[in-house]
Write a structure and sequence with these properties.
- This protein has 282 residues and is mainly α.
- It has one domain.
- Helix content is 80%, strand content 0%.
- It contains 11 helices and no strands.
- α3 crosses α6 and α3 packs antiparallel against α10.
- The relative contact order is 0.15.
Length: 282
């Protein structure tokens, strides 16, 4: 609890700094947040996800990561002061239930038990969620380009140092193999460049409910890709779990549309009131 209070205090200091246009006391808390973001997003999270993929299937990793949206909404309310969107929370809990159904049916079909891969996937998801919150806070003050360069450079340095320390230089011995060189460019362009830039840009200009809705589409897409490319079998729970996921997406989306209509209605009412009281005499 003490660590949580200290982290929340750091967020508050950084957010106050964003309102003072980088005054003399603005950069220390922001530097802490930028460093935490780099460590979590570029070192801890990918390391845990890679470890999870080595020890379980893509489908199980995707299912385990479904704890992200509801936890993100809660953390956004705690650290960023955003109001929890009830329909977004309900929709994401339904999606999480659908993921649990898929995993439960898969366990029943093949006698599979939750192992170290699933635990690593959950830990990676928690790391990713906290990184997302930190990114939202940092982008309120730090320019987008500075943030992207700083986080990528520091995160890469930390990740390489981490692997050299715990895995040795042999971890990178096959990095120049032809098949790896072919796929690393696909990963670098799609995930590192396009994906990260689009994600960070979205975080800068979106609310918590919008972010959680955007991530709601990923599980079904990831499971479908794993079935096509890796020939993975999600089990007999795919249909009932998939139906729950689609229903959850609909619930979250309906909440988003309702919020947009309310904001638009409030804006129009404000303009009408302003028009009624506006003095037009000479």
């Amino acid at each position: 609890m003490r660590n949580l209070h200290l982290l929340k205090q750091t967020f508050s200091q950084a957010r106050r700094a964003s309102g003072t246009h980088q005054s003399n006391g603005a950069w220390p808390p922001l530097t802490v947040l930028l460093t935490l973001s780099a460590v979590l997003s570029s070192a801890v999270t990918p390391g845990l996800y890679f470890f999870a993929l080595e020890n379980t299937s893509v489908t199980n990793v995707v299912i385990a990561s479904r704890i992200d949206p509801p936890i993100f909404l809660i953390l956004a309310a705690i650290f960023l002061g955003e109001r929890i969107d009830v329909k977004a929370m309900a929709g994401n809990l339904i999606i999480l239930l659908g993921a649990v159904v898929i995993l439960a049916f898969k366990d029943r079909d093949i006698g599979y038990a939750i192992g170290v891969g699933e635990v690593a996937a959950v830990a990676a998801t928690l790391s990713f969620t906290l990184s997302t919150i930190i990114t939202r806070t940092s982008l309120e003050t730090v320019p987008f380009g500075v943030f992207a360069i700083f986080r990528t450079a520091l995160g890469t340095l930390i990740y390489v140092s981490f692997q050299l320390t715990f895995s040795g230089h042999h971890h990178f011995s096959e990095m120049f193999q032809p098949i790896l060189l072919k796929w690393i460019w696909v990963y670098a362009i799609l995930i590192i460049i396009i994906g990260q830039l689009a994600w960070n840009f979205g975080l800068k200009h979106s609310k918590a409910g919008d972010v959680s809705l955007a991530t709601s589409f990923s599980p079904l897409a990831a499971i479908a890709i794993a079935m096509v490319i890796l020939n993975e079998d999600p089990g007999s729970g795919l249909i009932p779990g998939g139906v729950l996921m689609v229903f959850g997406i609909w619930v979250a989306r309906s909440g988003r549309k309702s919020a947009v209509r309310k904001r638009e209605s409030a804006r129009k009412k404000s303009l009408e009131l302003e028009k009624d009281v506006n003095f037009k005499g000479v």
